[in-house]
Design brief:
Length: 331
């Protein structure tokens, strides 16, 4: 059946918002601008993390992974979508659709896991400061990142195999901007209960479980912060966690609104919300981290003005461990 699907359909039609051409023109300009911010902002974060020794720490290592994932996730569908906005006939080949669906699903799952790992890093830094070098060693961080990426891509491979084995009966019109897995499964003309079951299990394991781990981590972090008597300690704790917490709220808030809201009477609204999740949300991460993080600002300044790169403020190198030590003394 899977082979029949592939030989019967060689390309798919992506409907987008063909009935609202004026709106698509607006979306073209908005998405092009936001996508540019996404790529440039996240590439800048990666560059800063690589070039500035002050950022060679676990938190920024995971932030670089998150930035790379945001660039890849948007790039997997936005360029083709922008081109399709200019065309009357919007098509994508079967291999292109399969790859697009695989990448968007894989990178979405990976982001959930990376956000959980970053929450664990903040938990160890604040609640287990004396064990931070041991628990968050370079080798441990690499393994955490590899497992996050590996689990996300392995899950996507399984979901993709199950999806393309479903009977489609030659249906080739996808009512979406890109090959999103739920939009593709709507083309199936047979039983997809197994697909639904595996999607539910994957959502529970790779989305809800990381979210619960994030919540538990911040419960312990909050409990530790409340035991710190000094206002300076409070400020340091909130400054080191606020950016990550903001990214988590934006990411999971958008997902929750997209999948758990009442079904819209106009299906185009659901597509626009999905577009917001796929295009706008990744571009917010570099903005949030650059606005809320003094070290990122300092690294950007040093990169822009090389004469400042040899600042005498060597204490920044030890800021994380000094911060952790303040919590251990408070305890």
């Amino acid at each position: 059946m899977g082979k029949a699907n592939q030989t019967a359909v060689t390309e798919y039609v992506l409907l987008g918002l063909q009935e609202h051409r004026n709106l698509e023109t607006v979306l073209l300009l908005l998405c092009l601008g936001v996508y540019s911010v996404n790529v440039l902002g996240n590439a800048l974060l990666i560059g800063l993390n690589v070039l500035d020794p002050r950022l060679h720490r676990p938190m920024y290592f995971f932030l670089s992974n998150l930035s790379l994932m945001d660039i890849c996730g948007s790039s997997s569908f936005v360029p083709l979508m922008l081109v399709n906005f200019l065309k009357a006939q919007r098509t994508i080949s079967f291999p292109g659709c399969a790859l697009q669906m695989y990448l968007t699903l894989a990178l979405g799952s990976t982001e959930c896991l990376l956000l959980a790992v970053m929450a664990y890093d903040r938990y160890v830094a604040i609640c287990q400061p004396l064990r931070y070098p041991e628990l968050m060693s370079g080798q441990t961080c690499v393994w955490m990142a590899v497992l996050s990426w590996g689990a996300g891509f392995a899950n996507s491979l399984l979901q993709s195999i199950l999806t393309w084995r479903a009977p489609f009966c030659g249906h080739s019109v996808i009512n979406h901007f890109f090959c999103e897995i739920l939009a593709v499964l709507k083309l199936a003309c047979g039983d997809i209960s197994l697909n639904a079951l595996f999607l539910v299990v994957a959502t529970a394991v790779l989305s809800l479980a990381p979210f619960l781990l994030i919540c538990v981590s911040y419960v312990f972090i909050l409990a530790t912060i409340l035991r710190v008597p000094s206002a300076a300690g409070w400020h340091k704790a909130f400054s080191t966690c606020s950016a990550h917490l903001a990214v988590v709220v934006v990411f999971y808030g958008t997902i929750s609104f997209m999948y758990f809201k009442p079904k819209a009477k106009d299906p185009n609204l659901d597509k626009i919300i999905a577009l917001f999740y796929g295009v706008v949300t990744p571009s917010l991460n570099p903005i949030i981290y650059s606005l809320r993080n003094a070290e990122v600002k300092a690294a950007a300044t040093a990169l822009k003005f090389p004469l400042w790169s040899h600042s005498p403020e060597q204490g920044r190198y030890e800021m994380t461990f000094a911060f952790c030590a303040s919590f251990s003394r408070a305890g």
